[in-house]
Structures are given as structure tokens and as C-alpha cells.
Amino acid sequence: MVNTMTLTWEATREFAVMAEYSTYGSVVVLQVNNPPVNSFSYHVRQGLVDGLEKAQRDPAIRSIVIMGKGRTFPAGADVREFGTASAGMMPDLLSVLAAVDTSPKPVVSAIHGTALGGGFELALASHYRLAVPSARVGLPEVHLGILPGAGGTQRLPRVVGVKTAIQMITTGQHIKAQQALSLGLVDKIVQGDLLKEAVSFARSIEGRPVEDRRISQKTVPDAEKVGEVVDAARKTIIRRARGAIAPMTCVQAIQASVLPFDVGMQRERELMAFLMTSWQAPAQQYAFFSEREVRRWSHPRDKRVNFKTAKPRVIKSVGVVGAGTMGVGITISLLQAGLKVVLLEVNKKQLDRGITTIQKTLSQKSASQRMSLLTTTMDYSALSDVDMVIEAVFESMRLKKEVFKKLDSITKPQAILASNTSGLDIDKIAAVTKRPDKVVGTHFFAPANIMRLLENILGKHTSAETIATAMQLGTTIGKVGVLVGNCPGFVGNRMLGPYVTEAVFLLEEGADPQDVDKAIEEFGFAMGPFRMGDLSGLDIGWRGRIEKGLTTEQGPPPATPPLYRRGNRYCPLADMLCMQGRLGQKTGAGWYRYEPGSRAALPDPVVQQMIREYRQEHGFKKRTISSQEIVERCLYPLINEGFHILDEGIAARSMDIDVTYLFGYGWPRHTGGPMYYAEKVVGLEKILRSLESYQAQYPDHHYLQPSPLLRDMVAKGTSLAALGTDSKL
Ligand SMILES: CCCCCCCC/C=C\C/C=C/C(=O)SCCNC(=O)CCNC(=O)[C@H](O)C(C)(C)COP(=O)(O)OP(=O)(O)OC[C@H]1O[C@@H](n2cnc3c(N)ncnc32)[C@H](O)[C@@H]1OP(=O)(O)O
Asked: What ipTM was estimated for this complex?
């Protein structure tokens, strides 16, 4: 045990504030001090190298502790430095870690918070690792489109074997301290004061040889199985990674860990250089920072609508109206965050079903505690005292207006009233209340307890305080909140319109649903539009089209040309399926057929026949459509709609659109999001020319008409960053 009273502070802060050097008798403690996450920017690297050298020079020093100041052990390289001059400035991270590994005096990494990426690689290069019970470690570089390029792909498998290393590195998962201990990744879990414990531990190992503590000198325990492990991983990754190059490149680097350490390190370096210079790494890093940047929201409508000045109301209790799929998912999210919930459902059977689902979904451990926060009711008066209500009833304006009228009369005057509408006019809903300033859209995505996106919609009268509250609620329940303006479909579903419309037009011309889905899935989406439609339920879109008067339950509205609605081209194939009761997975048939109890989408000859007859009836000639055309025809109109949205100020920045798509619609992260992809991967000029060319072929597909903003940007050579505040990225 170290007696704190005997600890003496020597000259500190010698190496700027970024790696503080303190001595405790024979122990040097190097504390990285680079808030918020102690990333390894240039000055930290220099500070560590200087500190290590100083410790080696001082004969009174016999051991070295490295730790993080503030909230965490270093959480990795400074990603903002990537691609800048300071990233390449020596010492680089590899030299810091080499100085640690080869130190003749034992080096102990003492971990709290999150030791991630380069931070965990530093710990692995150390001779001993301690962790507090709440610490987590991991190598999440794959999410940034790179690999653990400071020896992580070589040292980790030497401890846990190739199989576990592949699993950890290709998923980027964070491991809790206890699991890290059982995997041999930390040597000891310490309770109490980490600094004191680390110094005490360092003293206890002074004088012991460090050679056999160097992970770099060990061999991989399952080396003989590397071939079969890599083959198995390849199969999983091809299925899971869909177009992302980093996961398989990580595997290639890990494969080299069975070679001598220096050879493996060289291979890791080459593969890192390959990834660092790929187009996917900057796209994923953009996605990482955008996820955080959307927290700094504002809206051009009103300068008070700004994260800096708007203060949220305190929300302790929330009413949820409707115990359907969405209401139940929202309730689970709120309960999991420790909020009190009053769930109202007027249909007793539905309410009972909802309660059962909530009970089943909440984790065993905390279920009873969480359930104690839940009140269920069929009576609106039970909502009289809640701070906020989220309405999640059926998507009908008439019904929503009825609900909001009731809520306005029953809830306390300061309560916020939110609608989970997926695209109806928030202003019309607000207009039936006497508090339009407290009405806001909070669009959750199914399953609402899992999907991270929360699209918050600012109505004409929504106050800054109300928006701040909705954004804050998102953070409280672990969602990524994006602020958008009010228009039909808001950002996400509005852009989805052209995508699904064009996908259905492709069926008219010769593609089958599975051809379209395959092309979109190869692009990187987890599901193509038809599989997604079957999963969500085809009746959702159908009801929406009925509500808009585009179709009826019996077919086209009277006196309507079959393939046109209100002057626009219209394909009724989806309506035809719904009229047959084919509503998707839930009815065992939609665009595909499903065996009882299975979710596997099977091509259905009945649908293929229906499409064939439809083509014949309307004079469409079947042709072969390439995957490239499918991707362009579906995604470019979606992107084009994004430009309209920016032009109208519905989204303040292109990154708000990208984050919406990354977190709500499964847009592949390695492409950065639709707007990033358009600008940085394809190029705006190419998008514009493709739209023009398709529009010339299909003049009545109005979504193919390029947005004036896109045209203007191409003509002037302006960038998306220049439109909003994402220039920082
Ligand atoms: C040419 C090739 C030659 C080869 C030579 C190779 C040499 C070796 C080089 C590199 C190898 C190592 C690479 C890496 O380490 S990459 C980074 C790996 N680490 C991560 O991915 C961690 C990312 N961060 C997180 O997961 C989280 O931030 C967190 C868990 C650490 C903390 O979460 P939370 O408390 O929720 O905070 P925030 O996420 O909100 O973050 C706060 C703040 O900090 C910024 N930030 C976080 N991590 C980094 C980072 N690694 N670099 C820069 N900035 C970071 C984040 O953006 C937030 O900023 P704010 O929005 O402005 O507040």
C-alpha cells in the first residue's frame, strides 16, 4: 500500500500541460492531459517521449506509470489531426509505443474511462495493465475506416489469439474491465484511487525483468488455426460489411501476426497506408464527427433556435399515447433512461399486448425497477401531470388532431406535446391546440428502442425552448437527435419518396424486386427497398397514399388515368399488392413470400407473374437493367431531393441530412451519407449529368429533374461545406 502522505510531487508540467511528469519516490507518473478524451495529438506524443526519456535518464526512477487525467485514459489518435501536417510530425504514435515497449524500466498503464484505439495500443505496448472496474478497452478503428495501426493488429492476437482478435477488431467492440481481465488483456482490476494503486503496483514490480512482459516478444496462441479462422471470418465479413473495405483489411493485418513481430508490423503499416489513403476512411471519419456535430443545432428560421442559447425544460415524466409498435418502442426507450412513463391506450387488448412486449424487452436485471416507472391507463386524465406527451397513434391527421385537442385540454399548460408523425404537417396538428409554441415533431424510427435516430421537427410556432427540450430528450434516451424543418415527410421520408418511386418504376421496365434489392444491398444497405417495405409493412405507405388521395382501398380514384396522378407518373404495383392483402412479412407475403415463422424473403412467382401481366397491359417492354443503373436511378433522385431540402432550409446543413440517413435509414456508413457521397465520392457534376441524362430518357419522372441548388453549385463550383457550418470537418 502506498501512503499518500509519502507521495512527493516533483517539478510537474514540464512538458506543456499535455503529458504531466510527476514523481512518487522511485515511480514516475506520466499523465496525459488533453481534454476531452486525451487523444494523442502531436504535443501529447512529444510529451510522452520526453517524459519516458527523462525517466530513463534518472537513476532514481525504477518504474513508470502512464495514465490519463480527467475523464479517461487516452481514447486514441487525434482523428482531427488525420491528413494534417501534425499527424505526420515525429514522434509518431509508433515511436511512442516503441519507446514504451523497449523501456528497460517497467511501464504500467493504469486505465480508467475508455482506453480505445491508439490508447489501448499504448496499454498493450506497456509491460503491465491495471484497470478500474468501470474501464472499457477496445480497438474501434474499423468504424473510422482504418485499422489499429500502432501495433494493435499484432499485439492483440498475441494475447487473445487470432480468432478473438478478429472478432474484437472487426466489430470495434468495447470490452468491459472484467472481461478484459479474463481475456488476459489487463493484469489486475483495482478498486479505489487509481493513481495511488498504480504507484503502489509499480513499486511492487520494480527490479523485475521486463523481457517476458513484452507482448511483442510472444507468439500467437492459435497460430496453427489461422487459415481456417481467417476463411470463416472472410465469409462473415463479406455478408456483414457490404462494401466496406476496412474490416477485411483488418483481418489481413491480423493474419500477419503469426509472422515475426517486425514483419507483421511492416504488413500492418502497409495495410494502414492503404486504408488511410482510401476514400472510405475520410467518409467514416466525417460520419463520426457529424454524429457529434449535429448536437450543435440551429435553424435559419429563428436565431433563438440555437443550442447555445435555448434552454431545455426539465422532463421527468412523459406520457405516451398509443401502445402500437411505435408507442411501445418509445416507452421502452424512456423507461431504459429512467424516466417515468404514463402509457395510454384506449384499446384494452392492445394495451395488454404492449405491456407484455415492454416486460419482455426490458433486460431481466433491471426489469422490475424499470417497470416500476411505468403507469398504464386507458384514461386521458392520467396524463394531467406529465411534463411532456409523445403521441404515437395511427398516421391519420384526423385522429392526431383529435388526440392533440384532448391533450391540450387535459395536460398542464407548460407540458410539451410531441407527435411521432412520420411526415404529417406539424403546424396543422399544433393549430388545434392553444399552445402551438409547445408542439413539436419527434419522429422515432422502428424499432424505436433500438434505432438511434430522432428526427425533431420545428413547426412554424415551435419555441426554441420546446426544440431544446426535444433535442435534450434525445440525448437523455441515447438517440442521435437531428433538427429539421416542417414539410411533408420531413427530411428522411421525403427523400425516401423518390427512392422507392424510382425503384417501383424499375419493375415496370424489367427488373424484379430481388434485382433491385441485390444492387442496393451490394451498395451497402442492409436491405433493399422491397425487403425493407415488406419488413415495415406495405400498408403504411398505402394508407399514406390513400390519405393523400392518390389511391383508394378499391383502386385508383375514379376518372384517374392508371399511370398518372395529379399530372405525375405513378406506378400502382404496391397498391395492387395491398389490395390483395399482401402487406409484407406480417401477412406472410408482400413483394416476397415468407414461410411461416421465417423472415427470409423468397422471390414469389405470383408477384413476378403480376408484374409481367402489368407490363403487358401497359405496354412496357422488359429489358435487362444493370446494377449501376439501379443504384443511380434509386439513389440519385434521393440525393437530388436532399438538395431541394437544403435549398428550402428544411435541413440547416448537409450533415443533418447525412446523419438522418446514417442513423435512420441504414445508409452505408463507409460512404459518409447521401450528401457526402454525392459530393466527395461521386462528384456533384457527375450526379447532375446523370440526372439530366435519366431525365431525358424519362421526362415524366419528375424526381429526376435536377434541383436548382445542385445546378447552381455545379455551375459555381461551390461546396456543401460552404452552404452550412460543416466547414469545420
Ligand atoms: C500513412 C499510414 C502510416 C501508418 C502509421 C500509423 C501510425 C498509427 C496511427 C494511428 C493508430 C491509431 C488510430 C486511432 O487511435 S483512431 C481513434 C480510435 N479511437 C476511437 O475511435 C475513439 C473515438 N471516440 C469515442 O468513441 C468517444 O468519443 C469516447 C468513447 C472516447 C467518449 O465518448 P463520449 O463521452 O460520448 O464523448 P464524445 O464522443 O462526445 O466525444 C467528446 C469529444 O471528443 C471528440 N473526440 C472523441 N474521440 C476523439 C478522437 N479520437 N480524436 C479527436 N476527437 C475525438 C469528439 O469529437 C467530441 O468532440 P466535440 O463534439 O467537439 O465535443
From this structure: 0.98
